[in-house]
Task: structure prediction
Amino acid sequence: MSTGTTDATALTVELRRDEHIDLELVREMFTELGEPEPDLEEEDRGLLGAVVARRGETLLGWAELFWPELPETDAGLQWVLVEREARRVAGAVGEGTAAEVEVLAVLVRAAVELAREAGCTGVRWCDTEGRLDRLAAAAVDAVTAAELGRVWRLELAGWQPPGGLPEVAVRELPVEPTEAELTEYVPLCAGVLGGEWTVDDVADAVGADLAGYLTVDLRDVDGKPKAFATAVLVDDETAEVELVVHRDTTSAELLVLLVAVIEQARLEVATLVVRELEDPVLAEALAGAGLVVADEWLAYRLPC
Result:
């Protein structure tokens, strides 16, 4: 299928069901971006197929579809836009352009066709890019399927730490943590987030060995981590807390953790953003640190 006015500018969409098409597309994107090809491993991710958008021979992006997890009947969707990833590498992603909305809307509509052929009742995707997802959802008349959480925001200019903080020691994870340091986080992540976590999973979550990441933790009486927060520089102006994991932790203790992150972040950026996933303890700490709700994190659905 295609959209556009001429062969040279037409936006074409391919429906692909190849095994490991996701790895093929990632490699192509890195080549197009002029970046070293990542070390990828073949694994069973429950991939139903993919829809791929091109303009001429140029890869614009793709959407992966995943088989429903019973008793659900909607296919899951994840998308990637190549130009957006290029800007992410450069540290200036932005909120989404009209061209990005166009490509993403075409991908979602094509994904519905692929899902229908597979016997699914619709496609669902989680809001990962805020305004861009919202605009794309509106463009295809998708509905809000669920409220997954909230986005909190803090302008760091003039920020002052709240008074009366409890005496809680925090520790900053080294930029290049040892395997032993990462291993300490495995039981906490598995216990709170579920699933079988490995040291490599933790390394990915906290951005081990990557510039622009900061992880701060709290420890229990036995010296084991009971909470940690990981922030990453999104661009020159914004840092985002991508992950807050906590167990048996009060909102006052999490407030100390957040203050430590904020004090580091304001040395480099003007704004801090935190995603909170239906977590009242974290929400109380965020409000105590001065953050305000700026947006919601949503899941969208488009029926077949």
